[in-house]
Amino acid sequence: MKIHEFQAKEIISRYGASVPVGYVAKKVDEALDAATKLPSDVCVVKAQIHAGGRGKGGGVKVSKGKEEVKTNATAILGMQLVTKQTGPEGQKVKTLLVEEGMEIKKELYFSILPDRATQKVVLIASTEGGMNIEEVAEATPEKILKEFVDPAIGLRPFQTQRLAFGLGLEKFDPKLIRQASAFFMNLYKAFMAEDCSMLEINPVVVTGDNRILALDCKMSFDDNALMRHKKTLELRDLDEEDPTEIEASNHDLSFIKLDGSIGCMVNGAGLAMATMDIIQHYGGSPANFLDVGGTADAERVEAAFKIITKDPNVKAILINIFGGIVRCNIIAEGVVAAFKKVNLNIPVVVRLEGTNAEQAAEIIEQSGIGDKLTMVKEFAAAAQAAVELSKG
Predict the structure, then answer these.
(1) Partner residues linked to 321 by β-bridges
(2) What mean pLDDT, rounded, does the chain reach?
(3) Separation between Cα atoms, residue 169 and residue 127, nearest integer Å
(4) Could you tell me which residue, 231 or 294, shows the higher pLDDT?
(5) Residues 170, 176 contacting (CB under 8 angstroms)
(6) Is the entire prediction scored with pTM above 0.90?
(7) Which of 30, 71, 167, 189 is most enclosed, with most CB atoms within 10 A?
(8) In 178-279, beta strands by DSSP E
(9) Could you say which of 109, 194, 302, 333 is catalytic?
């Protein structure tokens, strides 16, 4: 689950991380009122959508004086903001954040993520704030600093100090080392206490009066832990989310809509990622990420089928199930039930391997839908068949 910038800043500020003074506005008049409350004549009017790259898309405007605030707020509110993360259709801006302007000496990057390879939490920092961290990592990997934290031990002060020195903050003011160390420590506390799956500040800024502030903030949460965070759930903005993704979450399905033409139904996140990779390897493009989970039943599979077929861009469906915890016959029953309720005019490729795979094949064969889908045993061959059928 994602939240807006202003909501994320409110959370991290509760843990002691410094953020600019700012106010939320949903109307132009509210933006003007917000600007009068700020400690500086210059303010920044920022679109609030669940996507990055807002500045490049025209969703962030520095404003001086009431007339500029009014002009920029009018232009941004209601606009269909297009960024790399929204896709070509963009997202409509319904909310603004009006923040204090300030002199900026330096922009930095900071994020916290779980690292599966080490089974630890990793803090990532860079002197190249305000840029896409992927581009920095590819072009200048030496500018990426990392600190790995064992959750059982916790983040230690020497680690945050090492990051602060690595960023060269002592060059601006030696006192910034202690301030930055506390800033990073507080963000780590927020990440752990709120069960985040990602916390990113891009940029962290050093201001003209030597303050360290989170100029932007993105947070996403572990859906499996949201039961512990009722207040966080209340922050969910359903207008910002894809309706099919909301429907999928109601059925305990992990679903993300993509722009391709091959619908994917897979069990297990790793296999789902591999399935999307091999589809692209054979020249196709996945229309979604969909993990039915290790405990999928016929009802959940039927729901997954209906969600996939709602996308008009889907030209073929690939069902790729490895029966480990989940049994293939249960998946087959769900597929049969879905076929009887959904009038499909697109080809379906099915690969069922593992527990009760032979029984699953019999269920499909005896159901009368065997002529409506293609059963393929090998993983690569199934993906290749789906790609060919999607183009045909």
Answers:
(1) 352
(2) 89
(3) 10
(4) 231
(5) yes
(6) no
(7) 167
(8) 196-207, 212-214, 218-221, 254-257, 262-266
(9) 109
